Amino acid sequence: MKKSLPYILIVAGLSAFFFKPVLNLFSRAALDINISTPPVIMSSIYKVYANEDAFEGKYTLYKMVIKNNSAVDAKNVEVQYKVSNYIDWTIAEKIPLILSGQTVVVNCYPKFPDEIAEKTTESKETVKLLVKADNIKTIENSFTITVKGRNDFMYNFLPAEEIRTAAEYYDNVPLLSCLVTPNDPVIKYFTQQIQEKILKGEVAATKKDEAEGIRFLKGIYSATLLSHMVYSGTSGVPENINDVNSIVQNIRMPREVVTGKTGLCIELSLLYASIMANAGMDPIIYLVPGHAYPGFKMNDQYYAIESTAIGGEGIGGSKTADEAFQMAMNNKDEFLLKLKEGDERYSVIDIREYIKMGAVAPELKDDVFLRRKIDEIASAFSGEIPKGSQILPAETEPKIANPNTAIAQNVPAAKEKAVEIPDNYILFKEIVHFAYPDDWILVEPNKYYTPDCKYIIANKARSATVEVYKFRGIADPQKALEIINTWQKKASGFSLKYKKISVEEGYSVFKGSTENNGNIAVNWIAAFKVSDGNVVGIIANATAYSGNKHEKTLMTILNTLQ
Amino acid sequence: MKTALKKCFFILLLTCICTYPVSAQEEDAQGFKIYMDLVANDKGEVIVDMKVKYNALYWDTYKRTSANNPSIIKNGLIKAFVKYSLTNFNVRNDEMERTYYATFTILGLLKLDEKGKWIAELDTKDPDITKISETQFILVDEDYAKSYKVTLPASATNSKIEKDAFGKAFLTYYAPVSSSGGNILKYGGILLVAAGIFIFFRNRYTKKTAAS
């Protein structure tokens, strides 16, 4: 025994030393995989998916966490995938070695073909997965995913119950830059038409001249006016984090907006951004709850225009380019204030910044038919801009502050239903139309009002007010009052008591009061109607202590309501 | 890893500070201090130990927004490290010190190539990173002058910052790869062989001495 002990020890030692390498040679490793996927694939951002550096690799087809739970190292691991109808078997990643106990993460950045940009309807696709290695049993897996049409935009990929903040709700907003298409041949052609026929030449980007930039902005507005483009008037941007119905929205490409001659606020903003980017400017889009408007930045200054002020004959007519510019510049100040207050619903989409981060537009092919449409549209540009108009080059009319009424004069005046405005009353023209005393003032809705309350106009003593509401996605005026009631109870403990008294000109009229434990605080009359799938209308009210002092005024307001 | 640190920093900003008016941020840009230790183990896991100390104003905001719901911090970190897998979260508040401590593990941040080299993407072209020893690096945040410590496994050699053809920076090092239990067997085997050789020669020496 004593003689053989050293040999036993040497053999045992060598066996122990070589155990692991030999085991690795002949044994199989076992890998556990865990796959997470986004809820949908948005075909308009297919170039973002293909770029693993875009937004720090956030947008993937799937994320696979592979853990080697065996005692054997896995060698030459290869993860492959295939997407039905789009991508044949492709290697997502090759991993030379996964140690026993090691975890690796494979993010799949699929290169969808350019044809996906033509996809207009949604489909369900199957993604097949293979995990192979020299020493594992091949793992097969698959999942189904919805591929959205190019016009479907999802504001976030989070489950509704996970959304806590506005920032989370608008998580995908930077991807709107993918819908800015400066290199689309159709948009390029449209831009050329504006530069040639409306602006008669421009040097905004090359000279970095702010006045030229403003002239360009107004030139685009004029082009939309002259081409009889109209604002669709429905919601373009979700309004608040409870706006679950708006998470997915249908947003048309800028070429579709130009040739279709109609657009939502966000669509018009994307069109402006595309044209400005094509002209070499720095476009931006201002996002506010329920609305968006375009602008540009130059020399650290920000400018904006209310692109939806083109309105339409059916929705109250159009504003001039100067009025649209002034409207947006006024809104911009309020916007900056909200931004400063930290309201996450207010944000700026800096198109070039997001393009740098990887939000690249889809490849769009030239289209002879669409070019012809542009020709037809652009024929309206010729000869309609009178000399001296502010849209003409700065050499002709250098002062940008002068009101430009010329363009509007060339546009047929919108037909409005006549509203008889009593003396000392002025017309309110947002959401609904009505007249109110000219000494009443616009006040900010506070926490006691639901987010559906868009405007409040009150007398100086605040004893009488008109609240203007727009409830999105609701088709029942009664339901709108229930929403206000629920909000009031939560915010102040007060509740609403009311009854329907009539239906007039499409408006359901309710008479009611707001009270707490039988003590009436406010008496009011509400008039709500359904418009474009939303409930819109006003509540005219007066405090209980003011008695019937304001009754006549409130009735005048209600009588002018349209 | 620098990106990882910056991300942590931004997450803190996002979860705790963004609710403040801009003016407040301007007045008190140094309302918090962040200390971070990142320790890489021999399986390529990175264990993060983070300490965030606030001033009174920021602590109030933190308490209001996140202190009672540590999953907010967790979700923020998961979103920030979206390419990787995060696990082993633990968040603890110290009211008296106006400090919170968070620990978590990042899986998949370090990758092993076929030559046995560990690689961590830095996602930047010019990292402010200083090597202080073969296994330790200090990262400096140029905007806020804060330092973070990265510790590599004790067996790490030839650690350095490398750049690829596109100018992207990586932290790389070599470390002997070993599986669980592998080292015990390996070194146990060497010991047994050494013991066997020792006994073999001792027996021969004893035999020779006895024969003479």
In short:
The complex is a heterodimer of chains A (562) and B (212). Chain A has 562 residues and is of the alpha+beta class.
Structural overview:
The complex is a heterodimer of chains A (562) and B (212). Chain A has 562 residues and is of the alpha+beta class. Chain A has 3 domains: 128 residues, Immunoglobulins (Immunoglobulin-like, Sandwich); 233 residues, C8orf32 fold; 135 residues, Mog1/PsbP, alpha/beta/alpha sandwich (Protein Transport Mog1p, Chain A). In chain A, 27% of the residues lie in helices and 30% in strands. Chain A is built from 14 helices and 25 strands. In chain A, strands 19-20-21-25-24-23-22 form a 7-stranded antiparallel sheet, with helices on both faces. A 5-stranded mixed sheet of chain A has the order 2-8-7-4-5, with no helix packed on it. In chain A, a hairpin with a 2-residue loop joins strand 13 and strand 14. Chain A starts with a helix and ends with a helix. About 6% of the residues of chain A have low confidence. Chain B has 212 residues and is of the alpha+beta class. Chain B folds into 2 domains: 173 residues, no CATH class; 34 residues. In chain B, 35% of the residues lie in helices and 35% in strands. Chain B has 5 helices and 11 strands; from the N terminus they run ααββααβββββββββα. In chain B, the strands form 2 sheets. A 7-stranded mixed sheet of chain B has the order 3-4-2-1-9-8-7. In chain B, strands 5-6-11-10 form a 4-stranded antiparallel sheet, with no helix packed on it. The longest helix of chain B has 30 residues. Chains A and B meet through helix 1, strand 5 and strand 6 of A and helix 5 of B.
